[in-house]
Design a protein that fits this description.
About 25% of the residues lie in helices and about 25% in strands. By secondary structure, it is α/β, with parallel strands linked by helices.
Length: about 240
């Protein structure tokens, strides 16, 4: 399989070079780059990257000073690629790539930061079971919220506490207006989180959106000069109240 090599430059760190097969592993997007430039990492943090893909975000976190980065993806090719790219960028001793569905393989581990660029494009129900590994990295149910809602609903169970029982961990997400940002804010609040916007970007519609345009509420994007634009958000959330299960 033909591999592709891409070099990224970020505001927070020097170059990150990744190699991947674009037919098997999702190509890092503007979502990935916006989150990478706005990750909030403290030195020696233990962090979790859900839906790690090529490993780009995990590597950025390791280079920013994280002590350990657990990187999870359901795609075995992504797990292999993340491990390989971590070694390529001299952080192989920090990045632990694990195959599995979101939190499922993590046991009782706790993290100072959980971050994710999850799949969040709507898809027609009759097509969902036909997706290949790249499709599963892009599409997420009829409303595009299937994965991000599961991440939010379970995050508090994996965030770190201080000895006195105060929950100190953070949840960072990159998300889009097309799945209704207000629903994301409300979901966070329902689970006891606040929602702080740390970055936004207006971005031209991706080609996948035109395939599912009937599923996207016209109020959730902007039309300008005959072109469609979404708004991308990077959020950082803290637990502000405990919520009973």
């Amino acid at each position: 399989m033909a591999s592709k090599t891409v070099t990224f430059n970020f505001e927070t760190i020097n170059k990150v070079r990744i190699r991947f097969d674009p037919k098997m592993v999702f190509t890092p997007s503007v979502f990935s780059r916006l989150l990478a430039n706005n990750l909030i990492i403290k030195d020696q943090d233990i962090v979790l990257d859900l839906c790690c893909g090529s490993g780009l975000l995990a590597i950025v976190a390791a280079k920013m000073g994280a002590r350990k980065v657990f990187a999870v993806d359901i795609n075995p090719h992504a797990v292999y690629t993340t491990s390989k790219n971590a070694r390529l960028n001299d952080v192989g001793n920090k990045v632990i790539a694990i195959e599995g569905h979101l939190y499922q393989p993590l046991g009782d581990r706790k993290f100072h930061l959980i971050f994710s660029n999850p799949p969040q494009t709507p898809i027609f129900s009759h097509l969902e079971n036909r997706l290949d590994c790249i499709g599963r990295a892009i599409f997420a149910g009829l409303d595009g919220r299937k994965v991000i809602d599961e991440i939010i609903d379970n995050a508090r169970n994996y965030l770190a506490y201080t000895p006195d029982g105060t929950q100190t961990g953070k949840l960072q997400l990159v998300t889009t207006s097309i799945i209704d940002f207000d629903k994301t804010v409300n979901r966070l609040k329902m689970n006891g989180f606040d929602c702080n916007i740390v970055a936004t970007k207006r971005h031209l519609f991706r080609k996948e959106y035109y395939m599912v345009l009937p599923l996207i509420n016209a109020n959730l994007f902007v039309q300008d000069g005959g072109k469609f634009f979404e708004t991308i958000y990077v959020t950082c959330s803290h637990m502000v109240e405990l919520v009973s299960n």
